[in-house]
Design goal:
An eight-stranded parallel β-barrel has the order 1-2-3-4-5-6-7-8, surrounded by six helices. With 253 residues, it is of the alpha/beta class. The protein has a single domain, classed as Aldolase class I (TIM Barrel), CATH 3.20.20.70. It is globular, with a radius of gyration of 17 Å. It contains twelve helices and eight strands. The mean pLDDT is 97. It has helices at residues 16-33, 49-56, 83-88, 99-104, 109-121, 134-139, 142-154, 159-162, 183-201, 203-207, 222-226, 243-250, and strands at residues 5-9, 39-43, 62-66, 93-96, 125-130, 166-169, 211-214, 233-236. Bound molecules: 1,3-dihydroxyacetonephosphate. 1,3-dihydroxyacetonephosphate binds at residues 9, 98, 170, 175-176, 214-217, 235-239. Residues 9, 98, 170, 175-176, 214-217, 235-239 line the site of 1,3-dihydroxyacetonephosphate.
Length: 253
């Protein structure tokens, strides 16, 4: 059975006190209201990991994730944070290959393979992001583009390793723009990606893969998007910074 997951990506937002307040509010609501047993993940910036983990405590179905990890295991890499460090601070998930990292920090498909390997070797669940820019969508080649991202980064992993990965499809033209993909567009891409994994790893592995949608997801559209057969939840940016909105999205299932 594949998991239903709603993950919040705070990106580079919130100072210490704001992060504490947001987490406390989410914990307070979710401890009573996550009756559908949705897996909820908070992905704050590195500096928030430890205090956020303390607030999460043993809240059921609420987990800590990071927005990034190094492709190296340890050593003289100033400014980097390793997967092993994240685990030692209580993280269980890590976002890998977000389009903002691909674009602004020039992360290649090959580098993302190394990061995914670090995550898996240290027992972190990678939330592996993929998605096409607007010109590719307009040219109609989006399916091939996103499949190539996945093939190049992930298809060297074993069946056992891939079974631990979560995929997030985030069309770049829908991120932070208020312009969401229609539920039909999301379903079409998610089904195509699931088939892509089935062609390499078999139907059983593909059927158990959680594929999240990301891109201007909000309390007004989440229910419709999550109702689609191949959409297993969301990776939420802007709306994850407001506790009520974020929890409303969790409750959209
Ligand atoms: P928004 O929800 O702000 O569009 O961001 C989506 C995203 O990039 C999540 O990783």
């Amino acid at each position: 059975m594949r998991k239903k997951i709603v993950a919040g990506n705070w990106k580079m937002n919130l100072n210490f006190e704001d992060g504490q307040k947001l987490t406390s509010e989410i914990v307070n609501i979710l401890k009573d209201e996550n009756d559908k047993k949705v897996t909820v993940v908070l992905n704050p910036p590195f500096v928030h990991l430890y205090p956020v983990k303390k607030l999460i405590g043993d809240t059921p179905n609420l987990f800590l994730g990071s927005q990034n990890c190094s492709d190296k295991s340890s050593g003289a890499y100033t400014g980097e944070v390793s997967a092993a460090m994240l685990v030692s601070f209580g993280a269980e998930y890590v976002i890998i290959g977000h389009s903002e990292r691909r674009e602004y920090f020039k992360e290649s498909n090959q580098l993302l393979t190394a990061k995914t390997r670090q995550a898996l070797e240290n027992g972190l669940i990678p939330i592996f992001c993929c998605g096409e820019p607007l010109d590719i969508r307009e040219a109609g080649t989006h399916e091939a583009y996103v499949k190539a991202q996945l093939t190049e980064s992930l298809f060297g992993f074993t069946e056992e390793e891939i079974s631990k990965v979560v995929i997030a499809y985030e069309p770049i033209w829908a991120i932070g723009t208020g312009k969401t993909a229609s539920s039909e567009q999301a379903q079409e891409m998610h089904a195509a990606l699931r088939n892509h994994f089935a062609s390499k790893y078999g139907q059983n592995v593909a059927d158990n893969l959680s594929i999240l949608y990301g891109g201007s997801c909000n309390p007004g559209n989440a229910k419709e998007i999550f109702s689609k057969a191949d959409v297993d939840g969301g990776l939420i940016g802007g709306a994850s910074l407001k506790s009520r909105d974020f929890v409303e999205i969790v409750k959209s299932f």
